[in-house]
């Protein structure tokens, strides 16, 4: 029996449009594409095992030492390695949130404690989360904007969580892989004063290079980063991924700014269209939309060549919840048109 916990599985069925993934609707930056083409001859050599040039460029971007950055084959690779090295006894995660936190914790032998986020509160993190930061918890994963809800954690609240975790010796890992789609500040500014804080980020989403697998973590705990590095396979970051990462960083803020403008406009367009179709839409800040449908949509859309993300396997959600990535206007119109046809057909059949 095949099992796949994420979006993007376009290989087992006919898919014309994949809304189950949430990468930049603008696609890969032209500069990244060109760098990959020009670098193709160099890919016959082994990649730099320590990603020296890439880490130096990231350090310059984030105004820190390269020793405080570790690159890996995507965020998921580093999340698993982090748990395997840390070997926590109890890991606190939200429900719903990105499933790799739970998977990594269980793989490392930890017990998983779930903090439930509720639909009636727009799945926002509340003050009661602070009560869950007990001494029995060794590690906490948070995601801002959260996946799949798209909700941001307020900066002052996140800083308070980081303060409590530092005081109680809890390792706090904050996933900011979608933060660049917003104008919210990063928690990474607190890293220098807090060795209990890990920030997770990736090139996957903003630069649309999911197939290349490139992520990184940041921390002032250089000993922990060294152990996480040693736990990975040699050459874990490929030469094409490193080339793409360097080119992506050279794109600067202009690419991010343009992406935010397009994403915000298209997210609003799709959200309004879904609401008009009777869907309960949750207002998020990222490049994807969580909504609840009174009718089944996954198979009817797939039969029309459109793949969306069923959230049935998210802890804390069920089969009535779906997530769609934001695309460009023409594709977004196609999604809404197909949904109108499906909803109209279902309504006719109910009469």
Q: What does it look like?
A:
The protein is of the alpha/beta class. The protein has eleven helices and 13 strands. The protein has helices at 30-38, 52-62, 75-86, 99-107, 128-131, 155-168, 222-231, 239-250, 252-276, 298-302, 329-350, and strands at 17-18, 69-72, 90-95, 111-116, 139-143, 171-175, 197-202, 215-218, 280-282, 288-292, 306-307, 309-310, 321-325. The strands form three sheets. A seven-stranded mixed β-sheet has the order 2-8-7-6-5-3-4, with helices on both faces. The protein has a four-stranded antiparallel β-sheet with strand order 9-10-13-12, covered by helices on one side. The chain has a two-stranded parallel sheet with strand order 1-11. Helix 2 (52-62) runs parallel beside helix 8 and helix 9 packs parallel to helix 11.
Give short descriptive properties of this protein.
alpha/beta; four-stranded antiparallel β-sheet; 351 residues
Structural class category: alpha/beta
Q: Count of helices?
A: 11
Record the strand order, biggest sheet: 2-8-7-6-5-3-4
Largest sheet: 7 strands, mixed
Distance between the amino and carboxyl termini: 38 Å
| Total beta-strand segments | 13
Q: Could you state the order of secondary-structure elements as H and E? A: EHHEHEHEHEHEEEHHHEEHEEEH
Spans of at least 5 consecutive residues whose pLDDT stays below 50 are: none
Residue share in helix: 25-40%
Mean pLDDT: 94
Shape: globular
**Rg over alpha carbons:** 20 Å
Strand share of the residues? 15-25%
């Amino acid at each position: 029996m095949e099992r796949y916990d994420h979006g993007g599985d376009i290989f087992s069925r006919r898919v014309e449009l994949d809304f189950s993934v949430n990468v930049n609707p603008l696609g890969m930056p032209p500069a990244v594409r060109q760098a990959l083409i020009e670098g193709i001859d160099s890919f016959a050599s082994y990649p730099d095992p320590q990603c020296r040039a890439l880490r130096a460029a990231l350090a310059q971007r984030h105004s820190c030492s390269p020793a405080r950055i570790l690159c890996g084959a995507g965020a998921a690779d580093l999340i698993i390695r982090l748990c395997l090295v840390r070997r926590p006894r109890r890991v606190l995660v939200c429900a719903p949130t990105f499933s790799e936190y739970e998977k990594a914790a269980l793989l490392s032998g930890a017990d998983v404690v779930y903090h439930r986020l509720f639909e009636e509160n727009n799945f926002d993190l509340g003050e009661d989360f602070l009560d869950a930061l007990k001494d029995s918890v060794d590690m906490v994963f948070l995601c801002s904007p959260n996946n799949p809800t798209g909700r941001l954690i307020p900066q002052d609240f996140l800083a308070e969580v980081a303060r409590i975790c530092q005081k109680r010796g809890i390792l706090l890992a904050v996933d900011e892989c979608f933060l660049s789609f917003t104008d919210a500040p990063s928690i990474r500014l607190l890293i220098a004063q807090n060795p209990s804080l890990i920030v997770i980020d990736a090139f996957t989403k903003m630069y649309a290079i999911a197939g290349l697998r490139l992520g990184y973590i940041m921390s002032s705990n250089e000993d922990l980063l060294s152990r996480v590095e040693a736990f990975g396979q040699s050459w874990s970051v490929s030469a094409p991924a490193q080339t793409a990462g360097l080119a992506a960083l050279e794109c600067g803020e202009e690419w991010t700014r343009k992406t935010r403008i397009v994403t915000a406009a298209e997210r609003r367009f799709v959200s309004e269209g879904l609401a008009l179709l009777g869907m309960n839409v949750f207002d998020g800040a990222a490049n994807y939309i969580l909504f609840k449908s009174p009718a089944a949509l996954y198979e009817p859309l797939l039969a029309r060549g459109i793949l969306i993300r069923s959230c049935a396997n998210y802890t804390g959600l069920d089969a009535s919840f779906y997530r769609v990535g934001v695309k460009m206007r023409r594709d977004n119109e196609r999604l809404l048109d197909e949904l109108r046809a499906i909803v109209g057909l279902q309504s006719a059949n109910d009469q």
